[in-house]
Amino acid sequence: MSNKIYFTVGPTELYPVIKKFYNSAINRKIFSISHRSKEFSDIFQATVKNLKKLLSIPEDFYIFFFSSATECMERIIQNLVIDKSFHYINGFFAQRFYDISTKLNKSPEKIYSSYGEGTNFKNLILPERTELICIVLNETSTGVALNFDDIKKLKIKYPEILLSLDIVTAVPYYKIDYEYVDSAFFSVQKGFGMPPGLGVLILNEKCIKKAEILNKKGISIGSYNNFLNWKENFLKNQTTVTPNIPAIYILGKICEYLLENGYKKISEETDKKSELIYNYFNNHKFIKPFVQNKYYRSKTTIVLETKINSEKIVNILSNQGFVLSRGYSIYKEKHIRIGNFPMHTVEDTKNLIEKFKLIKLK
Amino acid sequence: MSNKIYFTVGPTELYPVIKKFYNSAINRKIFSISHRSKEFSDIFQATVKNLKKLLSIPEDFYIFFFSSATECMERIIQNLVIDKSFHYINGFFAQRFYDISTKLNKSPEKIYSSYGEGTNFKNLILPERTELICIVLNETSTGVALNFDDIKKLKIKYPEILLSLDIVTAVPYYKIDYEYVDSAFFSVQKGFGMPPGLGVLILNEKCIKKAEILNKKGISIGSYNNFLNWKENFLKNQTTVTPNIPAIYILGKICEYLLENGYKKISEETDKKSELIYNYFNNHKFIKPFVQNKYYRSKTTIVLETKINSEKIVNILSNQGFVLSRGYSIYKEKHIRIGNFPMHTVEDTKNLIEKFKLIKLK
User: Fold this and answer.
1) Using CB atoms and an 8 Å cut-off, which of residues 22-61 of chain A contact chain B?
2) From its phi and psi, is residue B259 left (phi > 0), alpha (psi between -120 and 50) or beta?
3) Residue B230 contacts residue B78 (beta carbons within 8 Å)
4) Which of B264, B163, B255, B144 is nearest to B204 (CA)?
5) Which of A187, A199, A189, A182 is nearest to A239 (CA)?
6) Cα–Cα distance for residue pair B262/B268, rounded to 1 Å
7) Of A145, A140, A158, which Cα lies nearest the Cα of A95?
8) Are A110 and A85 in contact (CB under 8 A)?
9) What pLDDT shows up at residue B171?
10) Whether B151 contacts B165, CB under 8 Å
């Protein structure tokens, strides 16, 4: 039995109800059913319905299930890009999206912001022949959250160019207006408090049409998981292959659970907890928020810069029952990252801050 | 609470210990750990070690984790085939492997056997420039199991050509000599009695070398899940992206559990149960084994041809607590398929046969 609380950026703490969902599913033998059965189609339909309701996804959008957010990136590039994707890069996950386009022999272009900074896209002029704009809404590696209204204005400026939004650590807290997004994706081990193993892609008919164009041109859009095969299965409330049934089932149950509690609670508590954390570290001696501009500070993944090696601090807190993430890649030793998701309570957040106060360095 | 027993070909009945494994993992917060942590590497290493021991996989083989057996097929074609794969097709899963090669813009070739039949490969002459031979050891769609010794002789005849073996419903019962196989793959919702969501690829260094050749030629071998990226992560006991941690953890525990009980028990019981089933249906009035030649009859997925619509029979048995699979694709109404995996007991198999005896048709 572990008494630790995972304040990590994902995988993170599970919702306590998850255990009940697993046991109930096993007792009802839900993990033994055929993915081509009526029983599974009912589960698929319930999950899609609850997810659309929770995230305000329009009725005519498709939901495809993949194995990770990274698979979503690969399938997006494969199906939506003949040649040129365009990437705004201000962290390692945006960079990964760009790298995938390169590895699939496309010709991506990019602009950078310094890591820890954001942009409002006001001065952005897209290169000629850009087919897809790729943006990460909330960069888990740096703690920068872009403002959705700025992204919306970019889409209004370029209505004909498809826009793909990485919303991995953003949802369910950050609201997205899907009128201005053609595809968006997340994985469930962040704000949905589930074990990892499922990537969820939300997309509109324009994406299907683009995949059809590639397919007709003889460009490979992948095999079993291409968008055309997925659409056909989605319309039957089915998946392309035997999927991660536990994850699809539990995602539906978690959405139902979050809907019962209401978005207002998620929103208010996330605001409150992030305020507690930022307020404390704004005045800390050797740990400061990494993102300088408050406009871009993420409320769900809080990245702190520490003058003491992060390993030391993370170990002290872990021994006291609070698990945090260290920095990403080159920031491993310099950063501490705190996940602020709906399953993290205000009480535990206060306790975490109290533990920080007690850290004594020799 | 369901009292039904799933004698389906997969997803199928779970091992009863699975529930304990989930609860223990949740209590220990294993599904919250980082996939880059020492804790996860230990789990990864234990699963690989137990799996290699159970399936007698040589020490120098790699184990890569994907999301399904179908993903394994796609990654194999992507990484091992410049132009020409060769497929022996005697069922729908072998056909799927071929179709994937086509969809990835390769130029696969094929030979067919009538569905329900097998081959010993004695007269097979491979086309010029074949790079990869693709064979399904146990065709879940038709109930045909090839003989591994026949595959071995084919490999001895063509030692330079890579051989990829679909062992999805074959393991852990059917033994494979990995000296004669370059890559093999399975999914866990069959003989491993787990919920679906994990594909396991077993491969040797020759496959890595081939992926290197493709990569150097500028042929896309996929992005995050290509074999070169996977090898690099495997050597650190890590995965390429945040994986299905529950599945990797539970696979290791199931292998440990099967090792404790010993392969002899799996082997003897599978033989006994398949004998009980085939013996009974050899003399049945309107249900007969689909595979005529006993040499090719699968012991793990038993396919029966019925003169009465399969729906009727499957429904009668389901109402009595025994869930069976109907036929695959065009055989949906004409076939019944019975899974015979290690978690199915001799006692339950006898009970299932007794229920068949009671079926009265008006």
Assistant:
1) 22-23, 26-29, 31-35
2) alpha
3) no
4) B163
5) A199
6) 11
7) A140
8) no
9) 98
10) yes
Q: Which residues pair with B163 in a beta bridge?
A: B133
First to last CA, chain A: 32
The 10 Å CB-count burial string (b at 16+, else e) for B204-225 is: beebbebbeebbeeeebbbbbb
pLDDT tens digits, B12-24: 999 999 999 999 9
The torsion angle over the Cα atoms of residues A118, A122, A126 and A130, rounded to 10 degrees, is: 70
Name the region of A307 (left: φ>0; alpha: ψ -120 to 50; beta: rest): alpha
pLDDT per residue as tens digits for the range A119-128:
999 999 999 9
Nearby residues of A104 by Cβ (< 8 Å), 6 or more positions away: A74, A77, A78, A81, B220, B222, B223
What is residue B211's predicted lDDT score, i.e. its pLDDT?
98
Pairwise CA distance, residues B1 & B11, whole Å: 18
- The backbone torsions φ and ψ at residue B63, rounded to the nearest 5 degrees and listed phi first, read -120, 115
Gap between the Cα atoms of A77 and A85, Å rounded: 8
Calpha distance B98→B246 (Å, rounded): 31
Please say whether the beta carbons of A306 and A361 come within 8 A: no
Interface test with B, best of A242, A254, A341 (most B CBs within 10 A): A242
Interface contact A247-B197, CB threshold 8 A: yes
Chain A residues near residue B241 by CB distance under 8 angstroms: 68-71
The predicted-structure confidence for B232-269, as pLDDT tens digits, reads as follows 999 999 999 999 999 999 999 999 999 999 999 999 99
What are the angstrom distances between the C-alpha of B219 and each of B59, B213, B223, B341? 30, 9, 11, 40
Can you read off the two tokens belonging to residue B174?
């059917």
Q: Global pTM?
A: 0.98
Closest residue of B to A246, CA-based? B195
Tell me what pLDDT residue B327 has.
98
**For the residues of A212-247, what is the DSSP string, one character each?**
HHHHHTT----STTSHHHHHHHHTTT--SSS--HHH
* ipTM of the complex in this document: 0.98
- DSSP-assigned states of every residue in A107-143: --EEEE--TT-----TT--PPTT--EEEEESEETTTT
Q: Is the distance from CB of B326 to CB of B333 less than 8 angstroms?
A: yes
List % helix, strand, coil for chain A (3-state, nearest 5): 45, 15, 40
Rounded to 5°, angle at Cα B236 from B234 and B237: 60
Q: B241, A68: Cβ pair inside 8 Å?
A: yes
Which parts of chain A have pLDDT scores under 70? 362
Q: Chain A to chain B, count of Cβ pairs less than 8 Å apart? A: 174
Nearest Cα to Cα of residue A252 among A11, A8, A41 = A41
Of the pLDDT bands very low, low, confident and very high (cuts 50, 70, 90), residue B362 is low
The answer to whether residue B319 scores a pLDDT higher than 90 is: yes
What's the gap in Å between the CA of B149 and the closest CA on chain A? 30
The B residues from 224 to 243 touching A (CB cutoff 8 Å) are 224-226, 240-243
C-alpha R_g of chain B: 21
In chain A, what residues touch B12 (CB-CB under 8 Å)?
A: 32
Element (H, E) at B85: strand B85-89
Burial class (CB in 10 A: 0-12, 13-18, 19+), A262: exposed
Structure tokens at B43: 């789990």
Distance CA A317, CA A157 (A): 47
User: What confidence tier does B54 reach under pLDDT thresholds 50, 70, 90?
Assistant: very high
With cut-offs at 50, 70 and 90, classify the pLDDT of residue B360. confident
Rounded to the nearest integer, the mean pLDDT of chain B is 97
Q: Which amino acid is present at B304?
A: L
Contact A242 B68 (CB under 8 A): yes
Would you call A13 an interface residue with chain B, using a CB distance cutoff of 8 Å?
Answer: yes
